[in-house]
Recover the amino acids of this structure.
């Protein structure tokens, strides 16, 4: 696919879903597919993407012994997000690169808002501030039942204990799933729900069918 078919401005494509839904796998597959078509792209993640973001990620996901209120959690995510958008996402978009981001601000709306009770209006205002109102061009929610997501986490080849958020009880993760579905209903033009219970190759095919028309002249 010649570069001339790619949108002049880079796009922000985000991947969301409950723990164990397969986001990271699908991000890597999407990256490979875009590079095969000579579409420049950047893969990144939240929290993370920058040295500061990775340090905050370590606190958020692995500091199990630290008491952390839902608001404190959201503010840490927000600090990492602002650094991420400023240092990584905005420059990539301005350089006509497509950004494939493993989680973005929708995660805070769902995890700290719907599921942990932080005021949704406050989350929306701060998300707008820290991202300079940068809205994803397309968001994929990889939807899978909580029980399947939990089973995948426990069966990962890279054996490790579940992180702090993965360790929350099943009712929390069910509320996260329902929050994502509610969010998708509220923004159907931006958010696409993909059945992540399918085989990996079928999930990838469903994503690329929706993604490629955004990036190229392919139908």
């Amino acid at each position: 696919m010649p570069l001339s078919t790619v949108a002049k401005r880079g796009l922000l494509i985000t991947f969301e879903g409950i723990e164990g839904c397969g986001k990271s796998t699908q991000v890597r597959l999407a990256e490979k597919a875009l590079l095969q078509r000579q579409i420049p792209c950047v893969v990144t993640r939240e929290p993370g993407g920058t040295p500061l973001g990775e340090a905050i990620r370590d606190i958020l996901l692995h500091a199990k012994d630290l008491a952390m209120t839902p608001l404190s959690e959201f503010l840490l995510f927000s600090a990492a997000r602002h650094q991420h958008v400023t240092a990584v996402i905005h420059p990539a978009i301005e350089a006509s690169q497509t950004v494939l981001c493993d989680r973005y601000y929708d995660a805070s709306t769902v995890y700290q808002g719907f599921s942990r009770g932080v005021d949704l209006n406050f989350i929306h205002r701060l998300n707008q501030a820290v991202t300079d109102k940068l809205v994803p061009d397309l968001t994929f929610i990889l939807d899978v039942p909580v029980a399947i997501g939990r089973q995948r986490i426990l069966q990962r080849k890279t054996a490790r204990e579940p992180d702090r958020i993965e360790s929350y009880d099943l009712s929390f993760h069910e509320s996260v799933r329902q929050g994502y579905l509610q969010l998708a209903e509220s923004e159907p033009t931006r958010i696409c729900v993909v059945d992540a219970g399918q085989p990996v190759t079928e999930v990838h095919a469903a994503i690329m069918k929706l993604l490629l028309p955004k990036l190229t002249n392919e139908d």
